[in-house]
């Protein structure tokens, strides 16, 4: 199941994002969206998890949680 993660801290790395979700299950892919000119994070990314129930648990546990000073949002990607 592919998830979109919004309102991420701009200094968060893909490894940090993957580690956050690995606590809830197997992460198949993790991609931050980067600004083409600067190469810095745009503050959101995508995480793909192998099993739907693990992704649903991650949504339940992480949506609205604080990551550094940001309250992140996690939902299924359309």
Task: Describe, in plain words, how this protein is organized in 3D.
The chain is α+β, with helices and mostly antiparallel strands. The chain has a single domain (2-76), classed as RRM (RNA recognition motif) domain (Alpha-Beta Plaits, 2-Layer Sandwich). The protein is 26% helix and 38% strand. The chain is built from two helices and six strands, in the order E-H-E-E-H-E-E-E. It has helices spanning 14-22, 52-62, and strands at 2-6, 27-34, 41-49, 66-67, 70-71, 73-76. The strands form two sheets. It has a four-stranded antiparallel beta sheet, with helices on one face. A two-stranded antiparallel sheet has the order 4-5. The chain is globular. The model has no long low-confidence stretch (mean pLDDT 96).
Summarize the structure.
The chain is α+β, with helices and mostly antiparallel strands and 78 residues long.
Strand and helix map with partners:
Blueprint lengths: L1 E5 L7 H9 L4 E8 L6 E9 L2 H11 L3 E2 L2 E2 L1 E4 L2
Antiparallel strand pairs: 1-3, 1-6, 2-3, 4-5
Tally of separate domains: 1
Report the end-to-end length measured between terminal Cα atoms.
10 Å
Q: CATH superfamily, please? A: RRM (RNA recognition motif) domain
What kind of oligomer do you see? single chain
Rounded to an integer in angstroms, the radius of gyration calculated over CA atoms is: 12 Å
Shape field:
globular
